[in-house]
Amino acid sequence: MPSSFRPADTGLRTHLFQLIFESDTRSAKAFDIALISLILISVAVVMLDSVPQLHARFAVLFDVLEWAFTLVFSLELALRLYCLDRPWRYLKSFYGVIDLLSILPTWLGLLIPGAQSLLVVRVLRVLRVFRVLRLMEFVSEGRILMQALQRSQRKVLLFLSTILMLVVVFGSLVYLIEPPESGFTSIPKALYWAIVTLTTVGYGDIAPITPLGQFVSSIVMILGYAILAVPTGVFSAEMIRSVREERYSDEACPGCGHEGHERDARYCRRCGSWLDEEHPDPNAPAAATASDMDT
């Protein structure tokens, strides 16, 4: 539960707050699981309604179900705002925006035909399952992933800049080589071909027909296979670094100076010295008292 969200007062609002925003009790978990189930069912209804054959047969049923889901989610959002001391703060949060977007398309559908297709945004509300099931290990893994992305962003940007330059160079080159009847009628079309070829997608809707153009295509294809390994290696290295920093500490052993111990380690794996300097070693012999020394 975010620390910025607080119940409006004691009594009914507090009970609603504990039911809706917390997941420590059985009833709160049941509420969240029921809500997630409704979200998944409503998204499935939207998807099925997009199939022409099903829409022709069950259009009325789909409309009734959609309005039922919308009324339930609208009531749920109203209860969330009712039990908070600062409802506008929740509306500006990530989940508040998602909750609002999940009901707006149906109401907008009264004014804008086709707006109901935006209801698939409801699937984002399933993110609440992380709070319900207390899957903190996934949160930790997500933090490691974000750290790796942040550390490798400069290398990735440099890689993307290189890719863009190669696309412009080879696309312009093939545009100059190939005749218009081959499909390269403009530089943007040639750039599209260069992107498709360099990424090894190969749609085949446009291809060089001259021997020189095909030779350039071969070079671009080989470069595409060689380049694909670069971002993977960069990101993998940063992931390994983030995992090591998450698991291992850089604290040096006071006995031998060895580093790289696990964060929950208490003794040095090399010399056996006690690592936690803030707390005494429980297995260390007690200091001699004055009476012991006199004896």
TrEMBL record:
Main location: membrane
One record GO biological process: action potential
Subcellular location: Membrane
GO cellular component, one term: voltage-gated potassium channel complex
Domain Ion transport: from-to ranges: 29-236
Keywords: Ion channel, Ion transport, Membrane, Potassium, Potassium channel, Potassium transport, Transmembrane, Transmembrane helix, Transport, Voltage-gated channel
PANTHER family: POTASSIUM VOLTAGE-GATED CHANNEL PROTEIN SHAB, VOLTAGE-GATED POTASSIUM CHANNEL
Name the record gives this protein: Voltage-gated potassium channel
Source organism per UniProt: Modicisalibacter muralis
